[in-house]
Amino acid sequence: MAKLKLKYESLTSAIKTLERAIFVFEKIKNKKTKSLPNFIDEDVTYEDIYKAARDSLAQRFEFSIELFWKYLKEYLSEKGIIANTDSPKDVIRSGCKAKLISEEDTEIFFEMLKSRNLTSHIYKEELAEKLALVINSFCEVLKRNIDDLKPE
Asked: pTM for this structure?
């Protein structure tokens, strides 16, 4: 149980960091003027800051979804629900079968895993932009589910 609590704390910390990245990215994306603060070197452009924030957002998302499925695997194991598997999809599918994750959220988790795989293996500006647009909704699904899977 101690291991599960530690994984839960790591996961909730990662989600908070992801939420902060979403907040920062939205601020940068919605900035009315493209001027930068004086403390930023003149060789750094708005586009540089935007891309750095967007890419940070993608990295934090990848880290969060990775921690989620590994936490879920441990949670299911503690409950005696799952055999040992290293497949994120199988773990999430098992969470759905155990009625811990809704079918709708299961499909969203599969989309998250697909997005994570695309961004971690192939880097394209277009993919990064598309992911940045949906990460906020992905984060909401992560938060909703970790709240329901809190260790006792």
From this structure: 0.89
